[in-house]
Design brief:
By secondary structure, the chain is mainly alpha-helical. It contains 16 helices and 3 strands. It has helices at 37-43, 46-55, 61-73, 79-87, 94-105, 117-142, 156-165, 171-184, 191-201, 206-217, 225-239, 243-252, 270-286, 290-306, 312-322, 330-351, and strands at residues 21-24, 29-32, 35-36. Strands 1-2-3 form a 3-stranded antiparallel β-sheet. Helix 9 runs antiparallel to helix 10. Bound molecules: coenzyme A (COA).
Length: 378
Amino acid sequence: MATAVAGKGLEGIVAANSGICWIDGEAGILSYRGIDIHELATFSTFEETTYLLWNGRLPSAAELADFTAQLAASRVLDDSIISLLKSFPSTATPMEVLRTAVSALSMYDTDEQDNLHDANVRKSFRLTSQVGMIVAIYDRLRKGLTIAEPDPSLSHAANFLWMLNGEKPSETAVKTLDVALILHADHELNASTFAARVIAATLSDIHSAVTGAIGALKGLLHGGANEAVMRMLFEIDKAGADPVEYVAAMLAAKKKVSGFGHRVYKTEDPRATHLRRMSEQLAKDSGVSKWYDWSRKIELYINREKKLNANVDFYSASTYTTLGIDVDLFTPIFAVSRIAGWAAHVIEQLDDNRLIRPRAEYIGPAYPSAYVPAENRR
Ligand SMILES: CC(C)(COP(=O)(O)OP(=O)(O)OC[C@H]1O[C@@H](n2cnc3c(N)ncnc32)[C@H](O)[C@@H]1OP(=O)(O)O)[C@@H](O)C(=O)NCCC(=O)NCCS
């Protein structure tokens, strides 16, 4: 028996019990397993944060070393997946490629048929490593470059940059990406994670759940926003426009400016604080300050005019661009991190599962409506 009608977009609805991520949207607090994101961004690494998300507590030094080694040892892709990546049309976007390749991974995973906790953890290790590999390898293939083989001595962030660029990344680039990966790793029941939990709850499998999550992440209102921000900045540049006038015209035309607003945060998105800082620092270090400067001007204007704050995607755009990363890799990089959260949620869901099956408030034609034979229809 349905009891309550949710508001549009399920706003404010609590749809699951979860011990992974806690957000206070009014106070601008984000925490993983109770630990504030500011502390994690300052002191942790992607590997340690992933351990925290999956195990519910920080690891000992030995546990972290073991976890890191296991993640590095999982940097293996079947040759058939590489062939698949080579087979895609040149028009394929990295997000489409990632979605399709992750779906195909299940066919080469020895634990495919096993949906129990330990198998899901093993698959999570593999998926976490493979998502990064697929993004980096596809980018090199589409550019006609040879594949840079994974380096088990490198961290998740460093290995990604190595496999992407085929050269040793700078310490600054590794640190920046590592912090970005920590910031993006989980965010409670965001659209892609909710999609993953819904799929997992049917007792489907983690590859299906992550494939669905990638599809959800791709959208402009979710992970696709970081690419949209950069495309807007490029458009401003191309048009020789003033950034503030450009967004003022967008708002006047009732268009949304990507990278602003949030369903949950009513104050600054705590992740944006770090991305703004990193974007500014990279601008100083690189001598290329245009993207940061324009972003800041736009942010101040939208804060003032619309009382909207920058979200995680806004300064990701200038940060990644200053690191020399192509714009259509921004959302895939979100997935390179969020796979940690998706896996944590799928494991949590399946550890205490019940089918997720809400009801709809019916607003169609009245029941009973007559079935009119075809010859009598007007
Ligand atoms: C994130 C987002 C989808 C949340 O959506 P939501 O909770 O459904 O909020 P709404 O879209 O209903 O927005 C509420 C109001 O703020 C306005 N608003 C929200 N985000 C806006 C934006 N980025 N630019 C301009 N106006 C915005 C809406 O137009 C609406 O105004 P109205 O009440 O006058 O119609 C929305 O803020 C958005 O589309 N942002 C841009 C995309 C983005 O950055 N996504 C990444 C999120 S991390």
